Amino acid sequence: MRELVLICPEAQAEALSDALLEAGVLSVSVEDADGDTAAEQPLFGEPGLEPAVQAWHSNRVVALLPDGLDHGQLLEQVRDAGVADYKDEDCVLRDVPDADWVRLTQQQFSPIQVSERIWIVPSWHRDNPDVPRAAIGPGAADNGLIHIELDPGLAFGTGSHPTTHLCLEWLAAHLQPGSTVLDYGCGSGILAIAAAKLGAGRIAAVDIDEQAVQSSSDNAEINRVRIDAMLPDALPDGGFQVVVANILSNPLKVLAPMLANRVAPGGDLVLSGVLERQAEDVAQAYAPWLAMSVWRARDGWVCLHGKRVA
Asked: How many independent structural domains does the chain possess?
């Protein structure tokens, strides 16, 4: 296989990518053409605030060509689409060496030790001798360790983000056996699965995305634990002894009345996805129901905790 490399300005990046995909390339990536130079520029702001244009001032567009696709014909289709008038001298063709891409991708994802008790282990590291053994299924092994088997996927989180670590650490330190748990914004289901393996009782995993709900169910089955994954409208009435939500600050503020009222008397509310500078605003949003404070911080992110009066 070969790669076709083109340089384009910000305004053309999206249209060029679309035209290349329409012309039959296998994939397209857009990179900062000034990367690793003094002219390199950041593209994204804080989570939830995306730029109006998904590109840099100068972009390197890399298209992976299937065998048999002529790059000259490809450039002609780009011209016909009205994107840009590229000639042969405007592009770079480079060979892509054969490789076991699955294995190379897997090598990027190693087991993660979240705390003294919790490891996140991709399936291809299931028998890794460097990872301490743990029990399979609900409950901890004699050494107190649990493994959460979770493979990187299309979305929903793999447990590598500091906010996920903070929530997992709180659960490992404070979750009482048999506690009922609500994981709101469950994504991959990692927090719900951890709660199950830590000995929780009834566990509801809720997300607004149907694919996330399915992902949570599938991951729970792989980990041999039981959780009830559902869309918000399917969540039955009633409170939970632990409510955990790892989302972002703005949704957390909007959801404050609902999440606070889902905490049973004497129960705990655990929130993350919050930057340190946002902690006070989020805590204020929950003040009418619970007093929230920073439980722990990491890499600019915080985990907030509050307890509802019994």
From this structure: 2
Low-confidence ranges of the chain (pLDDT < 70): 42-54, 99-109, 135-143, 152-159
Range of the domain at 272: 159-307
Q: Identify whether the C-beta of residue 302 lies closer than 8 Å to the C-beta of residue 272.
A: yes
pLDDT digits (tens, 9 = 90+) for 258-284: 999 999 999 999 999 999 999 999 999
CA–CA separation, 195 and 183 (whole Å): 9
Q: Report residue 158 CA to chain centroid gap.
A: 6
Q: Tell whether 163 is covered by a domain.
A: yes
Can you say how many angstroms the Cα of residue 58 is from the centroid of all Cα atoms in its chain? 28
Q: Which of 80, 98, 116 is a domain's end point?
A: 98
Determine phi and psi for 294, rounding to 5 degrees.
-70, 120
What pLDDT digit, counting tens, does each position of 131-177 carry? 777 755 455 445 678 888 887 654 455 667 899 999 999 999 999 99
302 with 163, same domain?
yes
Does the CA dihedral 44-48-53-55 come out positive or negative?
positive
- Please state the separation of Cα 83 from the chain's center in Å: 33
Residue closest to 83 by CA, chosen among 141, 22, 153: 22
Determine the Cα–Cα distance for residues 16 and 85; give it in Å rounded to an integer.
Answer: 11
Check: CB of residue 307 under 8 Å from CB of residue 268: yes
Tokens representing residue 115 in the block: 């705390």
Domain boundary (83, 98, 113) is at: 98
Asked if residue 94 and residue 8 are part of one domain, the reply reads yes
